[in-house]
Design goal:
Length: about 475
Amino acid sequence: MKPFTVLELLQKAPSILETVEIKGWVKTFRANRFIALNDGSSLNNIQCVVDFEKFDESLLKRITTGAALHITGELVESQGKGQHVEIMVSTLHILGDSNPETYPIQPKKHSFEFLREQAHLRTRTNTFSAVMRLRSALSFAIHKYFNEQGFYYMHAPIITGSDAEGAGEMFRVTSLDPKNPPLDEKGDVDYTLDFFGKETKLTVSGQLEAETYAMSLGKVYTFGPTFRAENSNTSRHLAEFWMIEPEVAFLDLDGNMDLAEDFLKYILKYLLDHHEEDLNFLDKRQQDEDKTKPQAERNEMGLIEKLKFVTENHFMRLSYTEAIDILRNSKPNKKKKFKYIITEWGADLQSEHERFLVEKHFKSPVILFDYPANIKAFYMRLNDDGKTVRAMDILFPGIGEIVGGAQREERLEVLKQKMAAINIPEAELWWYLDLRKYGTAVHSGFGLGFERLVMFATGMGNIRDVIPYPRTPQNAEF
Ligand code: 4AD
Ligand code: MG
């Protein structure tokens, strides 16, 4: 007998001639007769019908929410509503009991805050199993896209000696004894005696290494964990998150924008085409939740409507300077509704400004480019005006910045000057400078924050709910 998944069984035609086998966890057990069994393969459960006269009462008592079961039986046409097939149980084994008194995932609505504390069990709920299935599907679609486009997948190092973003918000990696570290003459910790013989950190981005591979393999991308020790306790920031970073030789900023737009549309379209069931469920969940909120806080679009909106519309492209003009003259700026009032060119954009542009002004995804040099990273190509760089950020409804990227500075002297201006020693990035000495060329890339993408695609409002085990300030449980 071949064991099936719930998904497979639900797609099968009923047949009393065939005995099927299934293993899964009990969602509910009704009327001493109907078991809703789930194994993670589908949002839907398979209904298993037990004839209670055929089984010991002591066994039936152990069929409680959360218990693991092994069932065999005939797959028959369902008599009830809600499913077309069900299993008439002939054998039933309890693989693992669950204590109904203490099992945290009761068959009722739990708050996301509560479920975060039970993150090891929260994927037993419909919402989290749907979110994590979609997360997996998105990750597959990303690899599929790049593979089809002739990109190579590159694994950038996680432990690094350089600060790619120049922001200095990094976690240290050391094997020194914190109680008794070796000290140098000045009394500072002597990292030459540390594991790697130098100071090392967890990477904030694989970009710099990806650039080295783009400048030999042509088109590459990374997809790995990145770490930021910024103490921002928001619904959009994690200390450990996953980033996708394509990097392409001979590509300028316009080409980079085209690539990012095509890529985002492709992966969201992939979800719409292949994962309708989970999306429909989350769409409905969002609508139900909206009903409990005041009008102003409700989502303007349903989840699926929003995804189609992105896949079917052009992304609005405009310069930072144009955006500043729009923001300066906007109603919330004039009426001082923004927390950060935009007074002059050069201001860093906050999430409230990004969302205004996307959600209120343009009502479409937006790509902003040519930002002031001094609010962007050192590696971005300086424009002829001497004050802006070839940066681009992609802004999405409900999220704000989802992608950050740039055309890279390929001119050796300009790059050296930019590094010197912010005190990055050339000795630290000698290999990065080498790329500009030996066959330098225009090249570009971007970084997509994977969890921000999953938030967008699932309609979840907090980034802690789209990664299995979120790492945030004061929290590294599990
Ligand atoms: O804009 P960022 O900092 O860009 C880079 O790291 C570049 N090296 C990318 C590149 O050009 N190859 O980060 C890229 C994206 C952001 O747009 C955002 O979506 C996400 O990464 N991100 C975060 N996501 C979750 N938590 C955080 N703390 C994040 N910081 C950035
Ligand atoms: Mg950014």
